[in-house]
Amino acid sequence: MRLTMRRALGRGAGRGLGRLPIQVGLTFTVMMALVGLIGFSFADTWVARRVDHSLRNHAAKYLALGKGRPVTDAVVAARILDWQQRKILSQRTYVLFGADGRRIAGRLDIVPPPLGYSNVRFHAGGRATQQGRALATRLPSGSLLVIVQHSEAGEALHALLPWVVLALSLAAAVMGVAVTLVFARLIAIRLAAAQETADAIAGGDLSRRVPTRGLDGLFADQAESLNRMLDRMDDLVRTQRLFASNLAHDLRTPLTRLRGILRNGADDPAILERAERECAAIIRIFDALLRLAEIESGRHPAAPAPLHLGALIEDVAETMEPVLADHGGALATGPVAPLMVSGDADLLGQMLVNLLDNVVTHTPPGTSARLSLVREGGVARITLSDNGPGLAEVDRARVLHAFERAALPAARGSGLGLAIAQAIVRFHGGTLALDDARPGLAVQIRLPLSPPGAAADCAAD
Amino acid sequence: MRLLIVEDDPVIADQIGRGLGALGHEVRLAGTGAEAILMLRQGDLDAVVLDRMLPDLNGLSVIDQIRRDGQATPILMLSALGSVKDRIEGLASGADDYLAKPFDMDELAARIAAIARRGVAPVEGVRLEVGRLQLDPSGHQARFRGRAVTLNRRQYSLLAHLMRHADRLVTRSMLLEGVWGYAFAPTANIVESNLSRLRTALIGIACDPIETQRGAGYILRSDRCA
Lengths: 461, 226
What we know:
The complex is a heterodimer of chains A (461) and B (226). With 461 residues, chain A is α+β, with helices and mostly antiparallel strands. Chain A folds into 3 domains: 1-208, no CATH class; 217-296, Orthogonal Bundle (Helix Hairpins); 305-460, Histidine kinase-like ATPase, C-terminal domain (Heat Shock Protein 90), CATH 3.30.565. Helix content of chain A is 56%, strand content 16%. Chain A contains 11 helices and 12 strands. Chain A has helices at 2-15, 20-63, 73-86, 152-202, 217-263, 269-296, 309-326, 345-362, 393-398, 417-427, 452-460; strands spanning 92-97, 103-105, 116-122, 130-138, 144-149, 305-308, 331-336, 340-343, 369-376, 379-386, 431-436, 441-448. In chain A, a hairpin with a 2-residue loop joins strand 9 (369-376) and strand 10. With 226 residues, chain B is an alpha/beta fold. Chain B has 2 domains: 2-116, Rossmann fold (3-Layer(aba) Sandwich), CATH 3.40.50; 128-225, Winged helix-like DNA-binding domain superfamily/Winged helix DNA-binding domain (Arc Repressor Mutant, subunit A), CATH 1.10.10. Helix content of chain B is 39%, strand content 22%. Chain B has helices at residues 10-22, 33-41, 59-68, 84-92, 105-116, 153-164, 172-180, 190-203; strands at 2-6, 26-30, 47-51, 75-79, 97-100, 128-130, 133-136, 141-144, 147-150, 170-171, 210-213, 217-220. In chain B, the strands form 3 sheets. Chain B has a 5-stranded parallel β-sheet, sandwiched between helices. Chain B is elongated, with a radius of gyration of 19 Å.
């Protein structure tokens, strides 16, 4: 057991998560790089719009200096001078060019830009070339007012871009891998119990079940359906074991008797005859077993064809009536409806013979039986009822299993008759049930009726 | 009769040989399929008991070869495979009868006798006659010395089967197969009960030709139909 578990754990660790963390990490990286680029371009556009807006506002302020009349160069130049004295450190700079292109006011050393918005480069205070956004407006005098905004924010943003994207991508990659590992660990914890249970069962402990405590959602559902499957398997295995032990018992009994008989000496012909009878009993069990296996595994060469079930019942009744009469009882039929089913005549015949066999074998002499066939919706219902002592409810459930017989001391037969009958009914997609006939036992068999077309074909024959 | 037993198991072969020898048959043994085919080509055999599982050849292919040679010698196939499917396979391959192991010696002897003397296949619907006992298919009636009794279908088929095999042992399982077509062995006394009904009906017309061979089967005696 311990060995099994260690092997299982080793197997799990060896296989690990494979390429999954790398794949998830890469996906995260690409996604975050995209998010960074999109985010940056949005921010960039937004900042540029803000700059343009502010430039337009300031240009409008200067144009309005004329107070209703067209503003003059002198007023503007004075205002620029005043601005320069008050705001030494400003992002905004004003330059006024005359109509001839000569600089009238302002300290910024640039060539006159074209009208409207443009990007300009300039030198300021001996520093390296700086970038700025310029708005050139024509004054009524013909002079050119240029307002330059040095957008430090925008520049900083541009400088930051590659680093931001790289950092985001790296963080995403690390996070992707980490999340995958954590997620996998969480799933592994949930699945570990199921895996351990499966290994324990593979090791032979069929009583184990997957613990459902602490599981939720999909995992709880899966554990529950696994447990349901295990219950069914356990049940099947137990039935199989019971079958095997019953078989062993049923074969040991005649074999033991046979050995006893043979030890008593084989000179006596009466003893030889008894020995032969015991052999026949053993062979009968094997024949019935073979037959049961043949039907249950579907190896019986059955050719389901439209079958007149009523006629088959009458036929079997004709054969079995003398047998029940010799048993001191009687076999009556009726009502027998003319119903068609799709089935194998040999198998269904054997089923009816087996059931009538049971009446003769398992009831006291003088028991009578009645066979009837009625239509019940889409199914044909065969009822075989007898007026014998019947079966206790616990026995009714039990006797349908192979080798199970009611607790009757005198019960004989292969112990497989009902099991074979049930296998035949199941083969035909029907059901077999045992009911209380008050008194006696009623066997109810329901078989699906064949479609009307098939019945018509057969009736025409 | 001259019989060939093809069986590789020496114990079973010896058992069959002694059993059939005791009944007055002349028995030859073959242990392999090739040997069997050789002995069959020499001819002069009334019937063959052929095991299905042979060390060299499958029993089915032995039949195949023999039949292709144009040999019509009746063959009874013996097999440990007793399922309905195996049986059908055996009969379809050209065997005249099929018997599952383990079997009863009387059963084997009766079946060999039945296939060896079969001759022309009996035609259904033809009036059967043994001595003064007549079976009329049109009215399902048995007649004997001017008296008649109507039989039900089972009794009719039973009597027909016994009359076709008159003076020979017909076992219970032969009747179950031949009259009822049952390939399984019911525990109830289907054959006994139905046969006793038939016998009662025949006694009604002062005819009692069926003799019970205890534990083995039945014989319809033609001298009792005179």
